[in-house]
Design goal:
There is one protein chain. By secondary structure, this protein is of the alpha+beta class. It has three helices and 22 strands. A hairpin with a 2-residue loop joins β1 and β2. The two termini are 13 Å apart.
């Protein structure tokens, strides 16, 4: 009796298993985007293209074209305003935030203060948290707030550092979001600051010296507008945090008082683990903000600090945070140092091996059954 049907069935099972392996591999690796040049960015606002107010905050529209759009890809791009240190600032080239580039900090929430924007890839799982979605052709557009010609950021050690864009070249920065490094989507677009009558407050710069800590400008710096007297604090600094228990991953609301009216204020946790700002103090020196706590924040006592950029006033408060149960469980599975992606790959490989073994067992059982039927038929004949 012929065994061709059994062989064909076995071949089909093996082909199905191979197709499953290819499908799993494609899902794991995702689409491989084609290489392309970096995109182009334009900045437009009430003062014209590539310009911002040298005295007040400016709302601008930032548009991009020719970016690398990855359908269903993880993340997208961040649109930031800040300073870069020469040509080696790009994350894909080893550039590090706080050392090679600085930007205005802001919350990653969708309804943040407008200093930072997230543009998601089309169909990305994080699309719901983005302020815009990139088109299939790599185009996008967002509204961005430039806080003024100076801002406070955090250096590599987590210490507040003042960047004066009248002394160094600042502009709009785009980088890969959520830690994804993509050289095609890393750009820097200079922005010039002008006084209300349209005169440039800072000249174009091809290279920018490193920003200096503190608020003291060099003696030979010549601002394009009259220097205002340093603002005075409006009272004793006070910081309020919720009395309710907090868990890693929660949003931490806080209030502070005693800063100068209109002063830029930055809030940091544990010297830079997470931060929010700059926040503008109200007419009475009051500040209110929300600081997102990292989901992997360790349980215990942490220090919240709120600091003003103009007066240098600083107020601190300790708070207790409980560990996030989900994050703790995730970290427990990786305590041996094994990367999470390797664990996933191992599980997928085990599942594929199980499918192949099962298919071979089914083929062997079918062959044995056919042989028994053939023997019975031969005995009856």
């Amino acid at each position: 009796m012929s065994t061709m049907p059994a062989r064909r069935h076995a071949s089909r099972l093996r082909a199905a298993a191979a197709a499953a392996l290819v499908a799993v591999g494609a899902t794991l690796l995702g689409p491989v985007p084609a290489a392309q040049a970096a995109g182009a960015v334009s900045v437009t606002g009430p003062l014209g293209s590539g310009k911002a107010d040298a005295e007040y905050s400016t709302a601008v529209t930032v548009s991009g074209s020719g970016f690398q759009s990855i359908a269903g890809g993880f993340g997208g791009i961040y649109v930031l305003f800040g300073w870069i240190d020469g040509s080696g600032w790009r994350p894909s080239q080893g550039g590090a935030v706080g050392a090679d580039y600085l930007y205005v900090p802001d919350s990653e929430a969708k309804d943040n203060a407008g200093f930072q924007r997230f543009v998601a890839f089309p169909g990305s799982e994080t699309e719901a948290s983005a302020q815009a979605v990139m088109g299939a052709d790599g185009s996008w557009s967002v509204d961005l707030v430039i806080p003024g010609p100076s801002f406070t950021s955090l250096d590599r050690d987590g210490a507040p550092t003042t960047v004066d864009c009248l002394e160094v070249q600042c502009g709009v920065i785009t980088i890969g979001a959520h830690g994804v490094k993509n050289p095609s989507n890393e750009t820097f677009t200079p922005v010039a600051f002008v006084v209300p009558d349209g005169d440039a407050a800072t000249a174009d710069a091809t290279g920018s010296p490193a920003p200096t800590e503190g608020d003291d400008a060099p003696a030979d710096a010549a601002p394009a507008h009259d220097a205002a007297a340093p603002p005075e604090a409006l009272g004793d600094l006070r910081l309020g945090v919720p009395a309710a228990p907090l868990t890693a991953g929660d949003a931490l609301p806080f209030t502070a008082r005693g800063f100068a009216a209109g002063e830029q204020v930055v809030a940091t946790l544990d010297g830079g683990v997470t931060a929010v700002g700059p926040l503008a103090a109200g007419a009475s020196g009051e500040v209110a903000g929300v600081l997102p706590l990292p989901s992997d924040l360790a349980a215990g006592t942490h220090l919240l600090a709120v600091e003003g950029a103009a007066t240098g006033g600083r107020v601190e408060s300790e708070l207790t945070v409980a560990a996030n149960p989900l994050a703790a469980a995730t970290s427990a599975t990786a305590d041996d140092g094994t990367p999470a992606w390797l664990l996933v790959a191992m599980l997928i490989a085990i599942a594929i091996a199980a499918v192949l073994i099962l298919s071979n067992v089914v083929v062997a059982v079918m062959r044995a059954a056919r042989r028994r039927r053939a023997r019975r038929a031969a005995a009856l004949a």
